[in-house]
Write the structure tokens for this entry.
Amino acid sequence: MFELLFAFLLVLLQAAGAHTHTVNNNLTTYLVTITSHTTSGNTETLCAHLLPKEPATFTVTLEVINMANTTLLNEVVTEDFYRCVSFLVPAVSTDTTATIHVNVQGVSETLQKMTKILISPSTGFGIIHTDKPIYKPGQTVMFRIVTLDTNFLPLNRKYQTVELQDPNHNRIAQWLNQSSVSGILDFSHPMALEAVHGVYVITAWDERGRKTSHGFQVKEYVLPKYEVKVQLPDVISVMDKQMTVKVCGKYTYGKPVLGLVKMTWCYVPYGYYDSLQQCLMELTTTSTDKTGCATVTTNLTALFSRVYNTDVDIYVESEMEEYETGITVNGHGRTTATSNFSAILSFEDTVAIFKTGTTFEGKVKAARLDSSPLLNETVFIVVNHEGKSENWTVTTDSKGVAQFRLDTSSWTMDYVSLKAHLKEHRNLHMRHYHYGQTAMSLTQFYSKSKSFVNIMQIHRVLPCDEEGLLKTEYIIQRRELHRNQEFLTFFYLVLSRGSAVQQGHLLTAVKKGKVNKGEFTVHVRQTRDLAPYAQVVVYTVLPSGEIVADSSTVPIQKCLKNKVSLKFSSSQELPGEKTSLEVKADPGSLCSLRAIDKSVLLMEPHQDLTIDSIYSQLPVQRLSRYPNSLGDYEHQPCLPSPWDEVRVPVHRKKKRSYFDDEDSKKFDIYTIFMDVGVKILTSSAVRKPIDCDITYLLDMTEDMVPHPQNPFQESIIRTFFPETWIWDLVSVGDSGSVKVEHTVPDTITNWVAGAFCTSPTGFGLAPNTDLTAFQPFFLSLTLPYSVIRGEMFALKATVFNYHSTCIMVQVSLNESAQYTAQTCEGCEYTHCLCGEESKTFKWILKPTDLGEVSIKVRAEALKTEELCGNEVVTVPERGRIDTVVRTLLVEAEGTTETITHNALVCPAENPVERVISLKLPEVYINGSVKAFLSVLGDLMGQAMKNLGNLLAMPFGCGEQNMVLFVPNIYILNYLESTKQLTEEIKAKATRFLESGYQKELNYKHDDGSYSAFGKSDQSGNTWLTAFVLKSFGGARPYIFVDPKHISDARAWLAQHQQIDGCFRAVGKLFNNRMKGGVSDKISLTAYITAALLELDRSASDQMVARSLHCLRAASYQLDNLYTTALLSYTFTLAGDQEMRDKLITHLAKEAKTTGGSCHWEYTDASSKKTDSLEVEMTSYVLLALLSGPQLPDFGLDYASSIVRWLVQQQNPYGGFSSTQDTVVALQALSLYSAATFSPEGDTTVTVTSGGGYKREFVVNRHNRLLYQEERLTEVPGDYNVKAEGKGCTLVQIALHYNIPPPADFSAFSITAKVEGSCNSTRKALTVTVEVRYNGRRKETNMAILSIKLLSGYLLDKNSVNLLKNQHNVKHIEEGKGHVNIYIDELKKMVPSKYSLSIIEDIPVRNRKPAVVKIYDYYQTSDEAVSEYSSPCAGSDEFSEL
């Protein structure tokens, strides 16, 4: 009972003491301030105060683990003491927690305290800057890395690894050990044409493992000729009786479109799916005015009668059709109709703490639901305290913001309610129409003596060249000062980026009276060095030991020391003209320049390099509060302690937490310093006392109005037209200025140029500058991509005049033997055009030549005395004539056939002659015949010339892609071994390797395997995985290949090796004729083993040794020639001479030898064409002969007989009939070429014919790689080829002609049917192709269905998406004028149908049929061809002409 009474009395005494203030001079008071977060190697500042009652030693020590302690201050103090000391922060390699110890040792007392601070390692930061934020597949990504320290000075840092990762996290490019110059590194990387869409990431690691990353996007996009925007009110309400819709069209260069506009209105109840969309209104048709806009006003009565008391989304769909050309572009807009329209009020920059007697400042913002500001609106401010209300009114400015300053003298309670509202309105016609309100609860700042310091807000960002003046008011109770005290000292600290950079003190006179109240100004200097924030603490230490303080964070304009500027020589230039870009920066600056199409920045504005993005890279911009690891532990008085036995029963509604973590509440001295990240060590009480048993007021959330998110924000869809014009790295030299000259591109657009520079003075960033590439008078042509000979179409030439005056324009079409042109009836080709007008001129064109036809149109502004109406005709000073040249592809009817005659002539002692007969079939398309003669001194020359086009076939799957990849390895190896490799050839081949590598990763599975169509296949494919494994290994000397891809593939293959060492087949074989019996498993194992041996040539590897054991066990079964040929190569690589001799001897007995050539035939081969499997196995025999020691009777002479046959099978491009045979044959031919290479020897080849043709070609060591070609005109005819000299020469004659679709349906049947309406303006047709396999096998290999589009038609993209969903469609390739459909397989005698939609883009007369073709990819002789016609062909009368 006594203990309980004692505790109660103690509580009463403490409460009484809270209201009795006397200065106690018998207490020693100390205060130490230091930042909570500093950086290794920086100079940091610590400030210390001591008010001693007796002489004392004042010591401050810095302690870091595993380092010697550092004494920062050691002073004997006898009177009031204040000092700020600077010290060097110790070096650390990782974030390290250090401890600050304070010790005050007097005669009669010892005071000690410690706190923790964080030391981070010294670091700079890297910025990766790409030329664009978004790319199309096939474009080159250019990027630079700039490295800066925290003061924006350039760092020459070495990056151990810079990598580029695709969206599937594959590393597709890598650069090692790259060192920057003036802080800048420069890189580029070409993206594959088939690059996977998505976000790519560039990552750079420096020597200490610090990482910098940057992402960009790759996707397909189409830039229309012009864009259409629908402008609607952001929000409409039931008060609105009408809605105005404005539809505007603008060309990409910003000028208006003149045309016809169609609009429809639809609505969806707000928050529901678009599937509930209902269309209310009929189609509206109108025309644009001269500004390119059409405006329609609609009555909303019908809408609100249907959607009573419900919010709805309103959609407006529009279609604009350009006059004359008929080109249409769609646009859409959205708005919301609401029956409950409220304004949104919110407090901004308003702290939730007040200090009685000082000024309370804040802002209130008023906005509509669409976020637009409410201007000049009266806002009512209401403060409730102690049952009283105080009212103020303020008015919003142009931003909808109203500032207020309130007198707090009467606010004596701990809590105050602050509210704001707008005057309420009522309207009889409205159900719910009111303005909103907002509220917040304010807490009184704790001061034991009711003394305060208050830093007034600066309601703006401080300019970086202006001194900051912080007005500060104070209230100090007189009883807290000495009786005769005349002055009171206020101290201040200024922090920038976490470090104390300025400090000082100010003296204020002590005034008479109970309250000492006044103002002073703190000067913040050198603001440029403090950006982006100056964090200021103002405080004083009263004689009683109480600390009175306030802190404020002041935003400062972001500036850079290196002042960089850019300026074009003129703001507007004609396309094709020269212009100069002047760069000014600090002397010695290295500058990165970029100029890109403005639409790029409109598409991804946040990706551009700005001063904000530079500052955002700073490790610390400002400090706020402390991390948990640096918290200052103090005993929690509300937790159990010895006093727990004293229990006072009090009803508790809500317990207040010991420490309030709400950022906005600086409610005591401790949180004042914590708010700016400053640690304080003091003997003074700086925390608000906690009374665990006091019942706190409930938070006043019931009075607060939520701030709803605006539900009506519209996503912005922008046109994207990418173009990087300038990407330079230039030095400004000692003068600080340089001019860079460039030619303005032909694109009519606006170019935005920017630059950043590094120099010893620092980093600089130039404001963007613009150049408009524009021709006020210019010409635009509209024509199809291709037509078939005999078809006619309307060529349209539109002339635009954007001069403010009138011009007389004359348009002419260049005469040509390649086409006939007919003027339209009544058409004139000289016309008057005034400002903002356009005119379309037309001709009927009928091409007569096949191939690419050049069409040239010229428009000229004439000098004339004639008037345009009442206007005088002017002539532009510049750009008086505009000429446009476009290419039209004219194709022959039917299907193309190619016959290749190859002869490898190797004269030695005597000349060598060959006769080549060119014959035509009985039926062919007149005018389609072409023949070409070529001569090359190198077997690999033809393939070298056509590295990107070895096959006249599509390359849309993982195995076919390798034909673009692997031959480059063999050619590079060959040229390098023969010392013929030039930088030009190396660069070309390397580009193909990089592109093929990127594309192949699209077909990788997560388990490391590969398949023809990647993850759309159920599993990886053992054959393809082995193919990729060896190919990636072979490419390593020339390009970066991530070792993980090789190890992953090898590990996956190992999982499928069986106990007997053979490999289990997973996934489909490419060529199904390899199936059946043991040969299937053995040929697969032989292929994988050969791939592993090509990779590292180690027969002792456990995986290889086991597979060789499997192959030896099966080697007695030599009934399959393909397997035997493959085994011969595998055992050659393994070094097993016994097995090699046995297999090659057996193969020699099965060889087919005719006319000095040797090859092997497949028993089931087609008689029509050379079988791809025969080429492949013949090539494996050649590889076996050339990859090991020479065998008796099988030397180079025997190999030469094989080569003679192989080269006869080559197509005109250097490849063969399919992918696998091309890859294996070129590998074998490259080995043969290397083995027989001789730099000496000249050869003369003479080609003659009976018709008098004679041509002589000389091949020597200087031109052996030169592709010499000539067109032959005598077809049919016989040509005699005679070679004299000492070297081998490859002579090829390629004959091309078209034939009508053949009626051979022995392998496939194919029919095409067309349906559609011919009455609409833009005719839409559906093409349905039915195919059936009729051949000897149970099913086909992968088949290709190729559909040519009718001339003037475009593919409907929506139909492609439907086609992709068919079960056996694996891939669809869209080309210009055709579509390739990849079909997994076709079962015998089972018909399949495939449909797609096409839309007429340009009318064509005499439209010819279009060809459809189905063929087996790996057995190309299995094919069928048909054609289809437009049902609308008879109605294409060109009535407008």
In short: The longest strand covers residues 851-862. The first helix runs from residue 2 to 17. The mean pLDDT is 83. The domain at 1301-1435 is CATH 2.60.40.690 (Immunoglobulin-like).
